[in-house]
Amino acid sequence: MKQIKNFFTQEECDWFLWYDTVLPETRDNGLRFQTMCYFEQPFFSRKLTQLQEKLPNNEQITTVNINHDYGAGGIHSDGYLPGQVDTAIANSYLIPIKYTGEEPYYTLVFKQSSDLAITFNSEIGLGSAGITTYKQTTRQEYGLDSSPFDEKYYDYLTHLDYDKLSGFTVDYVHSWSLGTAMTWPRSRFHVSANFSGQYPRSSVLILTRYI
Amino acid sequence: MIDLQFKGSGTPFYSIEKLTDTHIKVEFFGKNYKTNPEDYIIIENIYYKDLLLNELFEYTTMTTDNADYRNLTNVNYISFNGIWELKFTQEDVKAILRKKLT
């Protein structure tokens, strides 16, 4: 769990915001507008090399998305998708590319984990909002215990029912900063802290696997 | 923001004039048709903002010093002295990506 300052320069942040405007499709998943970057396409190869050079030599990019959030999401892991079993899943890199700083934003990472990409969105009251491809799970199916959620972290998660958070343990609170990559193992559950939605908030998500 | 990759043989020289983010002129000169008629330059790739978009050749023109080929379009093989030009819009980039991805 670490932050990498200046992962993107202002110019690189602006590049992704521009790229988002020329791509043909942006999806609204109920909590954010999401654009796939088509990082495997030949036309993206130079950019992919630039991104890959920012990462450790033993990690390979598997996903690059641009997200424009308008609502705080649910608890999920960014593991492998059903049917695409990958035991080498590595890390998530979340890089704010548009952030005014008028309202602090946070992303909380939990100790609990899942190698399969799963989400508790429905279980914690968000329904299918924020879901594109991840499998919904339940507290019972995952095996969460009933130990109470640490109250000192609940101020971050007021969009969720406190009782539904029992069994989760916060490991790290990432504070957003423009161009700074927030990282965590892909298998770890994580969630956006609540926010007002009054100010623009955009980010690039990069997922990697070990090679 | 426009980046061209060249390859070729012989003597032709070129100078690049970047007019705007989406408009560039390249002057090719110095080819001697009598002593080096086979000399050429190929523009292999066009990058725009680091995206490889060779579809942008469709937006190129060239005026040459050859009376029979005074005005050319969609040019990547340069065998005459003259001015090659690329000019496009953000809408053109969107259209190219839409065609590639949908």
Task: Tell me what you see in this structure.
The complex is a heterodimer of chains A (211) and B (102). Chain A has 211 residues and is mainly beta. Chain A has helices at residues 10-22, 45-52, 139-142, and strands at residues 2-4, 27-28, 32-36, 59-69, 89-99, 106-113, 118-119, 135-136, 170-175, 181-185, 188-192, 201-210. Chain A has one domain: Jelly Rolls (Sandwich), CATH 2.60.120.10. Chain B is mainly beta and 102 residues long. Chain B has one domain. Helices cover 12% and strands 49% of the residues of chain B. In chain B, the strands form two sheets. Chain B has a five-stranded antiparallel beta sheet with strand order 2-3-9-6-7, with no helix packed on it. In chain B, strands 1, 4, 5 and 8 form a four-stranded antiparallel beta sheet that branches. Chain B starts with a strand and ends with a helix. The mean pLDDT of chain B is 94. Chains A and B meet through helix 1 and helix 2 of A and strand 5 and helix 1 of B.
CATH superfamily of chain A: Jelly Rolls
Distance between the termini of chain A: 20 Å
- Strand segment tally of chain B: 9
Task: Provide the structure class of chain B.
Answer: mainly beta
The biggest beta sheet of chain A reads:
7 strands, antiparallel
The percentage of residues in β strands of chain B lies in over 45%
Oligomer: heterodimer
Mean pLDDT of chain A: 92
Secondary structure: helix percent of chain A: 10-25%
Q: What low-confidence regions of chain B span 5 or more consecutive residues with pLDDT below 50?
A: none
H/E order of the elements of chain A? EHEEHEEEEEHEEEE
- Rg over C-alpha atoms of chain B, rounded to the nearest angstrom: 14 Å
CATH architecture of chain A: Sandwich
The pair of chains with the biggest contact is:
A-B, 17 and 14 residues
Task: Report on the biggest sheet of chain B.
Answer: 5 strands, antiparallel
Cα Rg of chain A:
17 Å
> What is the number of helical segments of chain B per DSSP (H or I, 4+ residues)?
1
Overall shape of chain B: elongated
Per DSSP E runs of 2 or more residues, the count of β-strands of chain A stands at 12
Principal-axis shape of chain A: globular
